[in-house]
Structures are given as structure tokens and as C-alpha cells.
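Please, structure for the following, as C-alpha cells.
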Amino acid sequence: MILVSAIEVGSVRSLLPVCTELLNQKFDIIVDKKGFFKEKECNYLDSLFVNLDYDDSSIKSFLISNSVKVLLFSVNINDTFPLKIARIAQSININTIHVLDYWNGYVSRMQLDGGKVFQPTKYLVPDEYAKKEAIVNGVRENDIVITGQPALSDNAEAFLQNNVSSNLGVEIAQNIKNKKTVLFASEPVSLDQGESLEENKNFRGYVEKDALKVLIQSLKGINEEFYVIIVPHPRQNIQELKATWRLLGGDAYGDVLSGIRGRDLLPLVSGVSGMSSTLLYEAWLVGIPVLSIQPGLLIDSLRMMQKKDGVIFIDNYNSSVKVAKKWLGTINNKIKYIFQSDINLHINAPKSVVSEIISVYK
């Protein structure tokens, strides 16, 4: 039996394609129904869901009674429960496989609970860059395997299908048609990393409001050409984001659009901006111009996009508006969508992860 555990949206989405591949290969799996696994897009796993108790003895008894041989898990930045299961599983000689969903927090994820750094049986990462950074950050090199990011396995297919899964509304659809459209991927930065170093040692050096302010200021004087769609993160308070956008003067340039995944809008936009969201990487993979706005950045692990070909990366305040305005001047509605070669690594990621599971399945 294989037990699957993750809580936050990025982690869950990285494991969903692996669950599908495991089922295709006739493996017996069970999935702890917590966090984002409760959402509608995970309903196809309904018959496989279980609900683990939170106390150590119950978790241990569950693992033994269900003959769990491998724990497939992903830890993110807030919830420690998958890590808790992993520690207990390892204590009774169950192999643990961790899937990294993004290029940051390589070791912090493994001690999110404040304990000693957890070393899983295998630590699976998206690419060579992630492997190098994980080693530098203290993950044991022999345990690291490059598999690609399973959540991106259908990135090219989804883009080419061009299926917008939600009604955009007449006004928004008209604006997209008549103007150069910029998609801004928002994140709950202040919620996750605080608003100062005093408040949180992991403070990024900016919050989402700072990035939005740069974008709005760069649009001044050229707003007739552009329309901005702000896509909230699934954990973000939409009303607060709308209020921030409005107070900064953003309503003159576009709208906050909820109820749709940002990736579904990629075929419709001229450029993608944001901070460090995975959506920026998804856009880059399919050849869309990308602007990462992270003024005052203090965390080097959030620089993954900085050296990608064609990506404009802002990490200081002084020239931020000038750089953003220049980027806006370079994008147009006639994009030549040239897929990056990295996309092939991710297409094969679910099978690659399952291969690593098989290698330790006893």
C-alpha cells in the first residue's frame, strides 16, 4: 500500500498526476483527505480517501494495520502534518518519498515542525537547478533525484487546448480582445512570510502590495493599450486583494478575477507578471513574456526565474517602475509561442516519480 499526504495547493497538485499514474499502473494507494485534497478537482480520488487522526499512536497504528510500504508526501510552507507522518513512517522503517513542488525552502520544508532536518528516503526535485540548490541548502545529495514537476506534466497540452474553464464575463472578454492583456499571478506573501524581518525571519523584503504598486505605476500613461487580470492564489483572501487593488488605483487598469486557474488564461494573454508564483514558470515554458516583480528581495531561493532566457526580473525599488514600463513596451499580441526544452522533463514527471517509488517498494 502507498499512502499519499499533502496539504497545500502546490503540494497537492504536484501529487495528483502521480496518483493517476499509480492507479494506471495498478498500485494500491490511499490518500489522506486534508487540505486541498478536499477540493473539487480531487474528487476523482474519492474512493481512495482516508482521514488520519492527528496523534502519533493513531498514525503509527494506521501505517502498520494498512501495511503501508511507501509514504509519498509533499511539504510546503505552513502545514506540518505530512512531515509528522513522514517522521513516524521512517521510525518504523517505511520508505518516504518527498516531492518538491517549487524551487525554494529546500531544507526548511524538512524541519517545518521545528525538529531536526528530516532526510527522506528520496527527495525528488524539478530540475538540475533545484538539485544544486537543495545540496547547497543541506539536503543529502545521494537522496536527491531529478524527476521534473508532475503538476506541470500537462502544461503544454492544457495550453494548446486553450480551454477557458470559466465564464470571463462580457466586459472582461471584450477587454481581452481589444487590448494587450497582462495576467498578474498574486500570492499571499504577507500572510506567509510577514511584513517585516521583526515579524518573520523569512520576510521576503516585499509584500504583494509592493509588487502591485510597481505594476500600476508602470501602467500610467499607457493604460489605453493594456488590460490587467489579477488572479488570486487559492489561499488568498479575495476581498482583501480586491480592496488593495482598488486602493492602489488598479481598477483603472483591470480587474481581480476569481474562480479560474491562471493557467487557463495563458493562451489569451500577451504577458504574465507576478512575484514568484509557479504560474510565471508555466508561462515561460510555453514562450510567454514574463516579468517577476520582487522589489527589495531578501531570499535568494526566490531567484529561480532570474536567469531564465527572456525573463525580466526586478529585485530593487529604485528602477522597478522604469524596468516594468520597458517590459510593457516590448510585449504584443503576436507572440511566437516557442516551448522551452525543459517542458519535456515535466511531461514525463509522473512516470519518473512512480519509477522512484517502485525502486523502494518492498
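The chain has two domains: 2-152+345-360, 155-331. The chain has a mean pLDDT of 90.
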